[in-house]
Amino acid sequence: MLMAILVMVGLAAFFGALLGYAAIKFKVEGDPITDQIDQLLPQTQCGQCSYPGCRPYAEAIAKGEIGINHCPPGGDSTIQALADLLDVEPLPLDEEAGEHSDVPLVAIIREETCIGCTLCIQACPVDAIVGAAKLMHTVIADECTGCELCLPPCPVDCIDMIPVPQSTDNWVWPEPATLGKIPIKIEVKA
Amino acid sequence: MQFDTRITSLVNDAPDISQLMKQVLYALIPAVATLLYFYGWGVLINLVLAVVFALALEGIALWVRGKPVKPFLKDFSAIVTACLFALTLPPLISWWLILVGLFFAIIVAKHLYGGIGYNPFNPAMIAYAVLIVSFPLQMSQWPGAYSVTGEWLSLSDSLSIVFGQMDADWDAITRATPLDEVRTGLITGQSYQDIVAGDHFGWLSGVAWQWTSLAYLLGGLYLIKARVISWQIPVSVLAGLAGVAALMWLVDSSIYASPLFHLFSGATMLGAFFIATDPVSASTTPFGQLVYGASIGFFIYVIRTWGVYPDSVAFAVLIMNMAVPMIDYYTQPKVFGDSGRAVHGKR
Amino acid sequence: MNTLIQKLWKMRGGVHPAFHKDDSTRQPIQHTAIPPQLIIPLQQHVGHLPDLKVAIGDTVEKGQMLASVSAVGIGAAIHAPTSGVITSIEERTIPHPSGLAGSCIVLDSDGKDDWGNQRLAPLADYRECAADELLQRIEQAGVVGLGGAVFPSEVKLASAGEGNVETLIINGAECEPYISCDDMLMRERAEEVIVGIDILMHLLKAKRCLIGVEDNKPEAIAALNSALETLGAAGNAGHGQIEADQGSNTQLSGDSSDSASLAIQTVSPIASAPRIEVVAVPTMYPSGDAKQLTRILTGIEIPKGVRSPSLGLLCHNVGTAYSIYEAVVAGKPLISRITTVTGNGIQSPQNFEALIGTPFSFLVEQAGGYTDKAERLIMGGPMMGIALPSDGLPVVKACNCILISSRDELRLNDHDPADDERLVMPCIRCGKCMQACPVKLLPQQMYWHARARDFEKVAEHNLSDCIECGACSYVCPSHIPLVDYFRFAKTEMKAQQQAAIKSSQSRERHEFHEFRKAREKAEREEKRRKQKEALQKKKAAAADGKAGEGDSKQDAIKAAMERAKAKKAALKAAAKNKQDNSDAV
Ligand code: SF4
Ligand code: SF4
Fold this sequence. Notes:
Chain A is mainly α. In chain A, 31% of the residues lie in helices and 7% in strands. Among the domains of chain A are: 32-86, Electron transport complex subunit B, putative Fe-S cluster (3-methyladenine DNA Glycosylase II, Chain A, domain 3, Orthogonal Bundle); 101-164, Alpha-Beta Plaits (2-Layer Sandwich), CATH 3.30.70.20. Chain A is built from 5 helices and 4 strands; from the N terminus they run ααααβαβββ. Chain B has one domain (17-330). Chain B is globular and about 85 Å long. Chains B and C meet through α1 and α3 of B and β15, α12, α14, α15 and α16 of C. Bound molecules: iron/sulfur cluster (SF4) (2 copies).
């Protein structure tokens, strides 16, 4: 019995040492925490978190001023990633901030209605709308983050949010388990 | 014309899990026959009870977890667990011990971890370990082999003993296993050579045990040939055990048992070919399997020689089960065309 | 004639599915009739969408270029497979696993199959041509890799460079079950294939060529060897100089079998024949993967990220070699390919020389129609092919096989909940997949992490090296569709990568936006400050006795502000019905 205990203890010590060594050897050089948080945010720049853009929100989280659950575009996956990074409990998304949409959206301007007022251009946080005063405006779809900030200023409501169109370039092979034909649920071993 | 595109993988006519499991059962036949010959009905009663209990428990567990019962029962994995467990038990053991053991095997070790494919520990060995820790007395009451005692217990007597209707005269029928005998002999200062000169020792180990071990070896070779298991684990288990044993034996052959004795005693062969190779709880990379197997061999020797239990295969396997994720992580094979690239993506 | 014994290396892993090739090799390659309508997708190759050269309503001749290699990057040209009228250029479903649409040219054929003067000038004396000229021809003819990769051949050859490739490997392994188009091509058009190889060798200045053919195609091997003998003997005898029958071009037009009839007699003897060797490789899936075949033939494993020419190797498919022959010697662009139509859903399985753009249904009709077992349509073979929703889809350059079969014959694992036998069970880590994987991956571990969506771990297990051969799915006793998980993980990882790129671009753009706003504000303030200063100066000056001038300046400002107000009002009027309470500004 004593031997068994000794063996166990020895083994535990051995594996502990190995793990400790691995932890040191494979340690990743860390970015400043604000940068790491900023990396995880979706960069939609929508301001729904009440900060003027993702970076300020990241700074606020880093300072501990606000929780990790105020980013609607990121949704649960961003909250989970932030929780992992900061080693805190994931919280449900703050509903006051807004709703998460599963499909990525992009703004599109109904060109026949547009009056060329330039208001949306000023609102766009990433300068993804082009056009000049009194000329029709257009959204550069590739650069639009889907933040919806251009919707309220438009005096003629000619901007719509549509799902990002699917093409063979951005198509994702369906996950077999989601085909609903497999009676086995995803179980992730902790 | 429109076609259904609901296809995931296109062709598959490889043997499925149930076929693999059935092959494992076939491979056990020689050993079961040998055990029957030496130990009588008790062996068969163990097997039948274990299979019945295992299927019942598996069915209940699946039903409670809301899984499709039929296909999972049909995968034969519970039956294999039951048989392996039953073969490690002393014949004539009480029926309720079998039930308790299988409860731990099927419910705790298997289904609480997520069912087949998710159990980090070998269920049969968990059951064995639990029983031997909790009921050491009952678990070491091995009847003497028929060839030694000359007493053949009838089926009805065997059944009565198992179901507690009749008290066996344990002192009369049990014999120390060769492993026990060697250990106690060595403790009391006898030399190894004197101990194995006893009448029921054969040229490898105990008479009954050596033949049983050979039968397991035969079954195991069939499994390797049929590609149900890979050679890495059994070979490395046996090599690891024999290696340490040989070393110690060379140091002092009067106080350490010979490597052959270790290979053909107790559950070595069963463990090497049937238990350590349980794919779910074993290492999965080729090199990792060698590490895993050799470590099991090493621990079998260490625990057998310096531990207090009658056999150590279960503990050795369970210890190494714990190390599997780490072994797998550090032993990824190099991919095609890759001779110098770091495998972990971190450079 | 080749007594050299080629040492073979053993492939790692691999599987032995039922090959089913005999069904479709009983009949010779058939030329199809001309379908009434062709649907020609623009994107049939790796690279950029080609630039359209025609418009709706145009009448085109056979072989006319419909779209040319994109000006922005690599790609391949598309040609009219027959003569007719472009009736539409629109989005149509294309043969892609997503079932999404892509732009297609719809060509109504006129039945004349008239080349006009579109046939490219035959370069029968290709050995006199500079590599550039040949490359240009290959590009012009829209030749892409026909083994499945559909990578533009010209790009591949040009990037290999002249003289870097010592060993040219020609892939005739065709390891995928059911498919027999390369087999039939080698059997029937071995000489043309050899000429195509000679062109490649000339172009690359390759020292030798190994043609790898699986040993379950003895007829193909024999045909290639005898072609080598005839052509080589002609070369040794030194007779029969190039007699390119240029005049026959136009006469040949209209004949659907033109490529075959512009036969080998127009080609000079092959001096390189002794340096070409046909090697029978053991039948084992996936020996036809380029890297695997390279290893089997030469023992060299091409590491990830290393281009094979840097190791003195280059691999081309036999079909590509044939297309290069057609492009160079026959002046025919890639407007048709050999396609196997097979499976137990087809009355009479066989190979067709099909025009690009031919609807599958037309080919099926030519093959006698469907049997009652036609349950699934797969483009490509059962291991790597893709299931498609409709037989209205067209043959594309990548379409080596149309497999129409019943679910049971293929033993499709489609996870019908009623089908206990093929139910997906949990992974038992048996390692069979690992043993089958030719790339030495650990599919069981990748599967585990892919299911947990831990893509970082999946990548650490070298998912990017997976060739999606499906050997792992094939052997899995738990019927896990491993390769589908890997395809999912790959596309998902790509999408995540794109999203990450986009978000970092957004971050930059946002930063610039903020910077610009700050700068503009600073500029405005600066301006205001200057104006103020100027004003104060002027005021001070006015106080010095020049009163009145400042007033007039202020009047001017007032007027300007009024104008601005009027403008705003106009804007507001334009936004008439809007109930925006806030000021329009
Ligand atoms: S073959 Fe299937 S069950 Fe076996 S390890 Fe691979 S994925 Fe798991
Ligand atoms: S599909 Fe990928 S993981 Fe599976 S056997 Fe082929 S290369 Fe290996």
